[in-house]
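User: Look at the shape:
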Amino acid sequence: MSSLDKIRKHYNWVSRKAFPFTAKDIFHIRATLGAIIYTQPYKTYCRKYFKRGSNVLKSRSADKSTAFSCDIKKYAEVSVLSIRNFFGITINKAVRLKQAAEEQGLIEVKKQYFKLQKNQVYAAKKGNQYRDESQNIVFLNEDYYIQQIDKIYTELYFKRRKKIETL
C-alpha cells in the first residue's frame, strides 16, 4: 500500500488537490469516483477554452452583464476514449462510471447527435468499419444520427491538501 505522497512522487504530479469525501459519497462510491474522473478533464477543458474574467474589479453600473454570466452553465466535451487513455480503464467501465455519476446528480451529461440523410448511412458505417472505429450510428425518432462526444457539466470542487510532515 502506497501513500498518496509516494504515488504523487512516482507519477510526477504537481497538484496537491483532493476531493473531500462525505458519508453520502461513501455510500455511492462508484458515482463519486466517476464524477471525480470526469471532473478533472472538465476543469482542464474549461481552463483551456473558456475565457476567465479579468482580475480588475468592475462596478455594476460599468458592466451589467457580469450578473448574468454566473448563471450560464458551460459544458465541456469530454470523450470516453480520452478517459480510457488517461486513466487506463476500459471504455465500458468509463461509460458505467459516467452513468452512475449522472444518476446521482454529480455531473450533467448532454448527448450530441448529428443527423444523417438516408443515403449517408451506408457510407458512414463503411467509413467507420475501414477506420476500425466503433459504430456510433444510432436510430432515433425514425432517423439516423451519428453520436458525437458527450458534453459534461459539473460543479465538483477539489480542495488543496495540506502537506503533512512526519516528526
In short: Residues 125 and 135 are 7 Å apart (CA to CA). Confidence is low (pLDDT under 50) at residues 63-71. The beta strands are 17-18, 76-77, 107-110, 113-116, 137-140, 143-147, 151-154, 159-160.
